[in-house]
Amino acid sequence: MPPHPSRPAPSAPDEDAPARRDARQKVTGSARYAAEYTPHGCAHAVPVPATVARGRVTAVHADELLRRPGVHAVLSHVNAPRLGEADDPTLALLQTDRVPHRGWYVALVVADTLEEARAAADDLRIEYTVDEHDAGPAADHPGLYAPEEANGGHPALRERGDFDAAFAASAVHVDATYTMTAQHNHPMEPHAATASWEDGALTVYDSSQGATKVRDVLARLFHVSRDRVTVTSAYVGGGFGSKGTPRPQVVLASMAALHLGRPVKLVLPRRELAAVVGHRAPTVQRVRIGADADGVIRALAHEVVTQTSTVREFVEQAAVPARTMYTSPHSRTSHRVVALDVPTPSWMRAPGEASGMYALEAAMDELAVATGVDPVELRLRNEPDAEPDSGRPFSSRGLTACLREGARRFGWEGRDPRPGVRRAGDLLTGTGVAASTYPYLLSPSSASAHAWPDGRRLVRIAATDIGTGARTVLAGIAAEALDVPVDSVRVELGSSDLPTAPLAGGSSGTSSWGWAVHKACTALAGMVRAHSGPLPPEGLTARADTVEEAGRESPYARHAFGAQFAEVEVDTVTGEVRVRRLLGVFAAGRVLSRRTARSQFIGGMTMGLGMALTESSTLDPAFGDFAERDLASYHVPVCADLPSLEAHWLDEEDPHLNPMGSKGIGEIGIVGTAAAIANAVHHAVGVRLRDLPLTPDRILGHLPD
Fold it and tell me: Which of 364, 104, 108 is nearest to 255 (CA)?
């Protein structure tokens, strides 16, 4: 079946869209976050990170602190509660004397007040035996190996055809290596949890992207049944992957509350997040493209080197997007990784796609220069008939339409392809383009829908709104399925006591939760229609799950696509890069809420700007940890960094997804943006810079006088 046509969406203003359901709560402060719950008698806990890069704890001098007023406990591997086996070894906290990397938590101080706990944690004396450590770098490391899988269950190596022969026989060659430093999620709300035990039951308020997942893990760790654990994640101040699964704060708070017999609150200090909640690992990516003289690709290789920790293997799947994007009869995509004595990497928004598409789209720009083909036209010439890696037809593929619509809106036609020619005083100006993609992901979910006699409707689901507008979107899905005004629908979410739901991650929340909500509401609508007379006083309830639907294997390759265009100015005196314009056009199925969709798209694009120009974490080889550990040294973009930011989308119809026809929109905005900016910098200065971020110190040596 050919891809479904896409067309520009109506240009109705966002003001016509329903207001966010949680807007008033957030601006008035009535929305309560994990650290804002303070049960009676609540104590405060502060973790103690290891100060050595690798070794063993030999002594914890807790007695010195326990004599202080207000200090009630010092937990370590000596006396901490024993945990059940963890699927994620980063949660096996205070269980052994081993120190796998600097910043690993080796103790926990609990006191009446936060100030008392902080002071005691700062003063706690810990003795170590120190072992020799290895913090890389990963490139050319003798310990590099080929894992079986990259993140997401993708095979680490895929080969089609004979890449070496086809590359050698090609008329045009691109062979370039691109590097990225580590990056960190840094949500506005630090990781926090408040835990209490009563009669063997655990109640937790946690800053998490999924209450159901946290509940299940805590039940296993603390040897209790799931119905004895309640996790609430009602409001979350950002996560971007770092709160996708349970993190140390919820385990340590629950452990301390069990040990002490009273509620305990724990907020991880921002300076410690880089070591304990995950990060995007640094990558070295070699991309080779062999093409005909007209730019049509014959051979494509994307080979990635990255790093993980000795605690848990996590391999950024950066080569995977190259298996989807362009025609490539002969292909090799591979990942190699080395385990170092460093913090464990994990998910950061659009893992794999964000980093991998930077390298691929920069290489496509290099191919455009080498062949003399316009960068937009080059991508159009390499549109595949089906997904190259799997051979499956696309359920819909709006990339061509995104490129053409973006070029029209941006004013791409008539662009002078010559680099370094647009100059005004000390400023050089350039423009660039890149494509983006993100897979359609779906997980089983459940939901319930209730009808009251007075016309009110209630939807219940354990989804977590991480700031993306889940309450708003799910209410709209329910209202449409029930054929009632959206104002009559209330959505209850954010608690593990509600019908189980997957975490908010992988841009899969709306598709997964929405399908369950749609199914439950459709069933309820049928019950209401079949009921004669007024509804009973207690109302009617319908429940549904999508285990069967989510378990079906689709015959289609399902992805969202987009195109980003950037205009930059480069100061030849300071080396500073300023993005003057950034535009994105996306094909992501049916957009369910214009207001929240635009917010998601521009948020992702802003993150892509940070990835290109400002965000960087340097691994200190002497200590095996990161040098930039706060928002003073780790620079994220602010409003002044981007004068003009536009996000548009196509009205894309795709019947092969879910009843709503929606794809994920949370992460595709970041994919492609960094490459578009980097390509614009090349167009401005005439020099190809392949190492992100493009900070002034990296640019100055390549600028003309």
Answer: 108
CA distances (Å), origin 641, targets 127, 269, 522, 693:
46, 27, 46, 15
* Catalytic status, residue 667: yes
pLDDT band for position 16 (cuts 50, 70, 90): low
Percent of the chain with pLDDT over 70: 98
Query: What span, in angstroms and rounded, lies between the C-alpha atoms of 523 and 517?
Result: 10
- Tens of pLDDT, residue by residue over 161-171, are 999 999 999 99
Contact 353, 438 (CB under 8 A): yes
Decide if pLDDT at 252 tops 80: yes
Q: How far apart are CA 582 and CA 589, in angstroms?
A: 22
Rounded to 5 degrees, what are φ and ψ at 386? -145, 170
SS3 94: coil
Question: How many alpha carbons fall within 13 Å on the CB side of residue 224?
Answer: 18
pLDDT of residue 1: 37
Q: Please, which residues bridge with residue 108 across strands?
A: 47, 75
- Summarised one tens digit per residue, pLDDT across range 193-207 is 999 999 999 999 999
Q: What is the DSSP string of 534-574?
A: SPPTT-EEEEEE-HHHHHSPPSSB-EEEEEEEEEEEEETTT
Is the distance from CB of 421 to CB of 358 less than 8 angstroms? no
Strand pairing class (691-692; 172-180): parallel
